[in-house]
Amino acid sequence: MKFAPSWVFWCRVVLGRFLDVFSYGQYSLFSIKIRSMFHRLITPLESTSFFIFGARGTGKTSFLREFFKGKNVYWLDFLEPELEFSYSQNPSQLKQELDLRTGVEWVVLDEIQKVPSLLNVVHQLIESTSLRFALTGSSARKLKKKGTNLLAGRAFLNTLYPLTSPELADLFSLSQVLQWGSLPKIYSLTSDIEKRAYLKTYTYTYLKEEIVSEQVIRKLEPFHRFLEIAAQSSGEILNFTNIARDVGADPKTIQSYYQILEDTLIGFLLPAYHHSIRKQQRQASKFYLFDLGVKRALENNLHSAVTPSTYGFGKLFEHFLITEIVHLNEYYRRDFRFYYLRTQNQLEVDLIIERPGMPRALVEIKSSDQVDERDTKTLSLFLQDIKPSQGFCLSLDPRAKKIGNVHCLHWQEGLKEIGLID
Predict the structure, then answer these.
(1) Are 375 and 366 in contact (CB under 8 A)?
(2) Which CATH architecture has domain 38-159?
(3) Hey, CA dihedral for 123, 124, 128, 132, is it positive or negative?
(4) Model pTM above 0.85
(5) CA distance 227 to 191
(6) Which of 2, 80, 147, 355 is the 20 to 30 Å CA partner of 86?
(7) What residue spans define the domains of the chain?
(8) CA gap 222, 229 in Å, rounded
(9) pLDDT of the residue at 138
(10) Looking at residues 321-345, what average pLDDT do you find?
């Protein structure tokens, strides 16, 4: 995979903006062009009903419009307040409406967590008819809270994330992703002012609409402070006591805040590695926000440039690559498990990957464009103690090499060698 020349990116953007002046209904020709520009890696099975969960703005609705093109689909979007209220009051009206329609192949229920009681009707319809359902949501938290069993396995689970490098293909630019993240909407915006405005609005909307709608935050201001600190410490080992002191809350509250972020797919925990599961659970995890643009917006850091060969660039690159690996693992259904390792004398492995049927992969991440023995020394030590395992140093160095027993690869080639991408 090669980086896109900047002129290719901007030609596509300019063409897209030209098309934007021609619109019809809710969707402009430009938004359709942008939507179809990306081949999403998510692969829900068409033989059965399915859920697609994902944070706001990851493109769930756009993906389904493309996925169901040419099919007879009955579509309900519960972000429309009147529709949400109507079905909340009378969930059985779904069956009544479908009885009046013929030839419907699929029923799409967009943002199903808004009307969790409707899943009981969906369950009955799956059992009694040949209808298949596609259900989207930005969180399964409310569904679980209401005691819903997520259809007891009758609908398979899928998750959609911000765009990955294979999905962006020729539009991928590392500097752009580190600066602005990879939510699909970013690629329809042409100026830094627009991108900053979108990400600031996104974080405010998420705070207001998603978290408040979960109805578990009594005091919004401490949670607002927590989000900023969570962004600043994203990719670092969690210390609930220190964060609680900075936020003005107790450690258990901070733990619950992180659980909310995980449940609403705004991030994930990376546990500490140890052969003993019991010991893994006793060590603090790291937490990674799902998108670098959102992270930088929450930090109020969008005006700062991301400069190569700096400490900040290196931390963002590590953050990007770990989230990229975790997201690709789910898309390609690899069933890999991920950990980090740090010893008492501060030696660290950035990522340990448990790969079924394969040796563990110990991964060091460097933002350097020229890797040497200094970058692999620590990893070589751990390879002697953790067996069987393979060592990988993933970096921006375009030249593949082997230093001792460590495979040093450009990160995009490294994803293939590790087994994440075919």
Answers:
(1) yes
(2) 3-Layer(aba) Sandwich (3.40)
(3) negative
(4) yes
(5) 26
(6) 147
(7) 38-159, 165-269+277-306, 332-418
(8) 11
(9) 83
(10) 95
